[in-house]
Batch of 2 targets.
Target 1
Amino acid sequence: MQLIDQRFLPHQFVIEDVATVRQMADAIREMHVRGAGLIGASAGYGMYLATIEAAARPTMTEFDRHLADAAEQLEATRPTAVNLVWAIERQLANIVNGRTAREKIALALRTAKDTAAEDEEHCRLIGEHGFHLIEQIARSKNRKSVNILTHCNAGWLAFVDYGSALAPIYTAHDRGLSVHVWVDETRPRSQGSKLTAWELAQHGVPHTIIADSAGGYLMQHGEVDLVIVGSDRTTRTGDVANKIGTYLKALAARDNNVPFYVALPSASFDWSIHDGSEIPIEQRSVDEVKCARGWCDGQILEVKLAPENSPAANYGFDVTPRRLVTGLITERGICEANEKSILQLFPEHAS
Ligand code: MRU
């Protein structure tokens, strides 16, 4: 199967072939593919590859062992986005129903396709629901351009299509509303300036890249009407884990009365967790903080930014407490960030 290797965007559009579980695990860990929805979809296909590999094993017991090893290998790649575990568990629950290796492979392929198709449809619906929010603001501004701030990349690159945070923006733009997006650069990996800006440019959506620390200033000066971010894991009570720096945006939004919305498909809810402090936060290599990758003379180069011997830390995500979240935009509609309101949309997860 083929992936867009996002490490090369926006400078090169590189397609990567992935044929084994190990290659898929590497692609997720090293962030050739990233973003909650795409991590889930990729893990789903990773489990399909696992069934093909397992079919070469001599017995069904060994088939099952290979599958369990593959699940473990894929799960260990990235700890925060809950879509990963969700997609793997969904695969295991379905594959077990096959009696032969052939049946198991077919079930795994079906499940991988269903997971990807659902992700796409859920993001489309998030676009519909979030559109109404933007439309309301546009009306209150006499149709003047709506300024939306976003953090990291929660666009179609982070999902199978449409995106979560960017889906309402694309829908609004496509339906003729004037929107402008403030794109947080999102250090250390710069998913904002590299990926979100590229996506928006491809789609013709007006946008401006800003340093991560600029959002507060813009909010103080009335330049932000709305913040929409994505989520890698949201508790059943509405605490939101998202790319590091999201919490600071939520604080600034609250201080300046700017609505702060989180867009997420239901696969990004962790129904087993009540409090954001229980969400595992990924820590990545400090080289991502101490160095920067960019394009120079026709090639990708990495340059050092910091003193060689200074220690660094690289926390990938933070948790925004529900009290700072104005609302959650899901495929079933918009709700408040609290358990009661979330369960009104997803009653099957009550109890
Ligand atoms: O580390 P990443 O790039 O996989 O992080 C994911 C993100 O892009 C964000 O946290 C995003 O806002 C939510 S996932 C669509």
Target 2
Amino acid sequence: MADCLFCRIVAGDIPAALIHQDDDLVAFNDIQPQAPLHVLIVPRRHIATVNDLTAPDEVLVGRMLRTASAIAQAHGHAGRGYRTVFNCNADAGQTVFHLHLHLLAGRGLGWPPG
Ligand code: 5GP
Ligand code: ZN
């Protein structure tokens, strides 16, 4: 989608600090990190929210989680722990309507979230 920020990052039109790329996914550092490691894992294909996932997307979502785990492990956070979050719509504070998985690590993360 031409007017989607993360589609533009995926296309390379807007720069981002890339952490990982493959045929289906791109991962890059969040521009406003909320933890020492804050990476966004996004599908190349535009999907607006978790509500828009369909059965054929189940493998893609599994890959997003496994990629988050691999990045956490590569940065030395697998043992102490990390958080993965999908925000969906207004009450969760979703601001970019292109599906993204937040990976947060490197500090103690409070629960419940604000
Ligand atoms: P949401 O609130 O939708 O779950 O998360 C969107 C995230 O995208 C936020 O954490 C925000 O900091 C991040 N973000 C917004 N604009 C940009 C950008 O231009 N580049 C990068 N790398 N991250 C962005
Ligand atoms: Zn998009």
